Amino acid sequence: MKLITAIIRPEQLDDVRSSLESYGVQGLTVSSAHGYGRQRGHTEIYRGAEYAVDLHAKIRIEVLATDEVAWDLMDIIVGSSNTGSPGDGKVWMVAVLEVMRVRTGERGTAAI
């Protein structure tokens, strides 16, 4: 089993979510995140005052997957979140030793 984590632009969430659902993903976790990559921060002017924006608003998506579909899900996330601009995000995959569904006690791929 694999845990796929993606950091994407907030405006790309609907595209990524619908693409994953079309593939058959039945569950995912979405949370807010703030950070920066190569694009670093920038300055903005608000009510005449200039201030630095060091951290950009991002969305963190986590999906548990079987080994057989994990690479497909990564490709789907990258394809549906890519705008071609700096700050599109990152996607990574890590191995999961065990998963257990709290409600039923199911383990392994049955719990996904």
TrEMBL record:
<dbReference type="InterPro" id="IPR002187">
    <property type="entry name" value="N-reg_PII"/>
</dbReference>
<dbReference type="InterPro" id="IPR017918">
    <property type="entry name" value="N-reg_PII_CS"/>
</dbReference>
<protein>
    <recommendedName>
        <fullName>Nitrogen regulatory protein P-II</fullName>
    </recommendedName>
</protein>
<dbReference type="Pfam" id="PF00543">
    <property type="entry name" value="P-II"/>
</dbReference>
<dbReference type="GO" id="GO:0005829">
    <property type="term" value="C:cytosol"/>
</dbReference>
<dbReference type="InterPro" id="IPR015867">
    <property type="entry name" value="N-reg_PII/ATP_PRibTrfase_C"/>
</dbReference>
<keyword id="KW-0805">Transcription regulation</keyword>
<keyword id="KW-0597">Phosphoprotein</keyword>
<dbReference type="GO" id="GO:0006808">
    <property type="term" value="P:regulation of nitrogen utilization"/>
</dbReference>
<dbReference type="GO" id="GO:0030234">
    <property type="term" value="F:enzyme regulator activity"/>
</dbReference>
<keyword id="KW-0547">Nucleotide-binding</keyword>
<dbReference type="InterPro" id="IPR002332">
    <property type="entry name" value="N-reg_PII_urydylation_site"/>
</dbReference>
<feature type="modified residue" description="O-UMP-tyrosine">
    <location>
        <position position="51"/>
    </location>
</feature>
<comment type="subunit">
    <text>Homotrimer.</text>
</comment>
<dbReference type="GO" id="GO:0005524">
    <property type="term" value="F:ATP binding"/>
</dbReference>
<keyword id="KW-0804">Transcription</keyword>
<comment type="similarity">
    <text>Belongs to the P(II) protein family.</text>
</comment>
<dbReference type="InterPro" id="IPR011322">
    <property type="entry name" value="N-reg_PII-like_a/b"/>
</dbReference>
